[in-house]
């Protein structure tokens, strides 16, 4: 087609653009096949309570094993999955896998861990979501109180009315919700107050340089005290050092998640972590 438009049309596609287009098409084709081929897996990262120093839950994080020994991180395929609509079946897979695994772990270990599942914009605005959640909880036997969904501020604020409605429906079922990457988007504090939310996760960019960076320190301290007033739990994301941990403990942050406690782990390793850390009988 470019040819038919004349000589100059060739200028529209540089070799680099061609490469980028080819790469994207390959990625998209691979992504479409990946579900059928069972190439997606879910890793779990513990959430630790500062109150009793025990694991109270975990975040489900998807990975794509594109080839043996090659794990593609979500940031490299979630945006494309979102764009193409593949996020819907992929999201279903993650929800089902996470709920089934959590139900099994809780039953085997006598725990009541809460699993949190990330939802993208398209998933969160899907009017079938409550029905899906209900069906998955029923099929896996996971109590609704053991499921939490995570959405970013941006997703929440995109359409406040539908978001509030969705959260209300989930809350009605007993499923809680938290705001992910808090502080990086645009939140209206007014709506924050009105939304049925259980927790806020402070983005790891604010945690990284505490306690040294005075502005990060001010932001983190402010978020924690604001949430205390709003009766929202606060989770610190990306806690990597003992110094950050001690500092957040001092600020009476509720929970922490990060490499200091554990990296996201494949399910069997997560179960081993629970035993080793004294959360479950060895
Ligand atoms: P997120 O929901 O904010 O997840 C936290 C990310 O921070 C994870 O990256 C996790 O591995 C990483 N992380 C945790 N602790 C630390 C730490 O101490 N230091 C550092 N540097 N990083 C830490 P991951 O697994 O690569 O996921 C990236 C993002 O992809 C997630 O950010 C989430 O937005 C998205 N995502 C992951 N799984 C899903 C999914 O199933 N569905 C959807 N829609 N999005 C997902
Ligand atoms: Mg998250
Ligand atoms: Mg986050
Ligand atoms: Mg994120």
UniProtKB/TrEMBL annotation:
Residues 24-278 form the EAL domain. One of its GO terms (biological process) is regulation of DNA-templated transcription. GO terms for molecular function: catalytic activity. It comes from the Bacteria. This is EAL domain-containing protein. It comes from Desulfolutivibrio sulfodismutans. The lineage of its organism: Bacteria, Pseudomonadati, Thermodesulfobacteriota, Desulfovibrionia, Desulfovibrionales. The chain holds residues 413 to 694 of 694 of the full protein.
């Amino acid at each position: 087609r470019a040819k038919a438009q004349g000589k100059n049309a060739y200028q529209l596609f540089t070799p680099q653009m061609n490469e980028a287009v080819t790469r994207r098409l390959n990625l998209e084709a691979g992504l479409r096949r990946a579900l059928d081929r069972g190439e997606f897996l879910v890793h779990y990262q513990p959430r630790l309570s500062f109150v009793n120093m025990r694991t109270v839950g975990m975040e489900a994080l998807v990975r794509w094993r594109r080839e043996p020994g090659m794990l593609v991180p979500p940031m490299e395929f979630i945006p494309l999955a979102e764009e193409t609509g593949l996020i819907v079946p992929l999201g279903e897979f993650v929800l089902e896998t996470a709920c089934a695994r959590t139900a099994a772990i809780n039953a085997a270990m006598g725990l009541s861990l809460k699993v949190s599942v990330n939802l993208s914009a398209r998933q969160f605005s899907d009017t079938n979501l409550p029905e899906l959640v209900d069906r998955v909880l029923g099929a896996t036997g996971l109590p609704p109180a053991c499921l939490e969904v995570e959405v970013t501020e941006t997703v929440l604020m995109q359409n406040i009315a539908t978001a509030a409605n969705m959260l209300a429906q989930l809350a009605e079922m007993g499923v809680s919700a938290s705001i992910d990457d808090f502080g990086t988007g645009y939140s209206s504090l007014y709506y924050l107050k009105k939304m049925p939310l259980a927790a806020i996760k402070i983005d790891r960019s604010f945690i990284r340089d505490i306690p040294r960076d005075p502005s990060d320190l001010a932001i983190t301290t402010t978020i924690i005290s604001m949430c205390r007033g709003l009766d929202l739990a606060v989770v610190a994301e990306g806690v990597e050092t003992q110094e950050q941990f001690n500092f957040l403990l001092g600020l009476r942050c509720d929970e922490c998640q990060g490499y200091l406690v554990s990296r996201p782990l494949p399910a069997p390793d997560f179960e081993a972590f629970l035993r080793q850390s004294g959360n479950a009988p060895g």
